NUDIX hydrolase (Candidatus Accumulibacter aalborgensis), 161 residues
Amino acid sequence: MSAWQFCPGCGDRLETSELGGLPRLVCRAACGFVHWDNPAPVLAALVEYDDRIVLARNKAWAAGAFGLVTGFLERGEHPAAGVAREVKEELGLDALAVTLIGVYPFARKHEVIIAYHVLARGEIRLNEELAEFRLIAPDRLKAWDFGTGLAVSDWLAGRGA
């Protein structure tokens, strides 16, 4: 459950009450605020560039830890447009084609991952969030068993790998 203690609308104390079959934080006052604590939608891009897959390492990650390009969906944004935006922002690449791979729960970070295969071109220019990248031949790509790795697994299975 969330660390929220007070209502952002009226400032009264929040208390736990069952709504929709789950415990929710609700305002004791009559303002009607409910903290639904829904997961955040995250976009993930399996970027194909020059017939290879781009894996990137975020500056906050341990050395040697690489993954897909990810970012949060913006308010009012279509997920396919959002993933193209993330690829442009983080790698400097233009999306030529964007195809949905699937949607995956990521309970550990309270997120829902919407993963796409993105065919991209241009010159890779990392933004300030990324430390480095690797280009991997698709036949050498290996999935991991959590988060965006589930999308990698599905994408590889769809290719017959």
